[in-house]
Design goal:
With 239 residues, this protein is α+β, with helices and mostly antiparallel strands. It contains 6 helices and 12 strands. Strand 8 and strand 9 (178-184) form a beta hairpin.
Amino acid sequence: MMKKTRLSVVLPMVFAISMPVWSAEQEPVQPSMVARAESSTPASIKHDEKATVELANKLQAMTTVSANFSQSTMDKSGRPKVEKGSMQLKRPNQFRWNITSPFNQEIIAKGGKLWMLDPDFKQVVIKKQDNQSGPTAVQLLSGDASEFLTEYAVTRMNYGPEVVYTLRPRKASDLFEMLEIHFSRDGISAISIVDSLGGKRRIDFTRVNLNQPIDNKLFEPDLKKLEKAGFDIIDESGV
């Protein structure tokens, strides 16, 4: 019998966006790659093709990312929730999302598997890595940006040293109504989302390091060590 867990509560908040996975090598995005969706954009939604290509190239240039994060979530009733931690990402499709406050939890992905570690409940749940899902920040930084952005109208605004790209779905979406990606001095600084139910989420990044070596051991949980420490290992991956 599975022990009580909070994973069913946390995951819907963390796993929010679907997008294609990253291929091993990608060329800079050309305008023609995003222009094919231009005709499907309603006239009421503004779209800047130049901004789309610019954003796609910025995202695809990030081969590794490590940073601290603070994720603030507010539901439609206005109740706030803040989670803090660190994240590491390495293409293709490897990531570690480590929440350290107000509770401890890690989500790790590599080689088609997803490990969800909950130290407080002494539990590890293993699932098949869904190539269409992942933590919001992870997907934006690791997915095939050119394919993803064909589904959204993109605009760009400058606020002093900060550049903000705003994404709106071309068609009605259950995922979000608006998403903003913030860059400061050419480095990603925040991601904010307004979902279709009126909830708001913002992830602020600090101490961001781009394209620096990251130890592969961060993406390989030691299950034998965890078992010895008393963790229940629940493998639902079928991999």
